[in-house]
Amino acid sequence: MSQGGTGYYGRECDWWSVGVFIYELLVGDTPFYSESLVGTYGKIMDHKNSLTFPDDIEMSKDAKDLICAFLSSREVRLGRTGVDEIKCHPFFKNDQWTFDTIRDSKSVWLIWGSWLVKVIYILCMCLLVKV
Question: Who wins on pLDDT, 50 or 104?
């Protein structure tokens, strides 16, 4: 049940958490940081306007789009219809592996972008197993 007591949390909350995790991995800070709990809550509730990316952090357009797709309203959040829509996101497009061959890839840990993709993949699979 939600904090207000009137709604229920679904799987889409897990995908929000993946978005926060990816942001923290790439930026080194939390996306909705504030000095107070109330301030943080306010930023989360106004995520459409408060989610920003620091200018001094290099990040691909696809990485930003992936984070924004996870940190969006639950009605449109990436992953709401299943993991296949996440696998189709442009962030995961590459010529080194597919989701069918990722477990057999030997060089995937040597490349930062691919390493991050593998971490995200493992997180997604863990979330699916708990259902």
Answer: 50
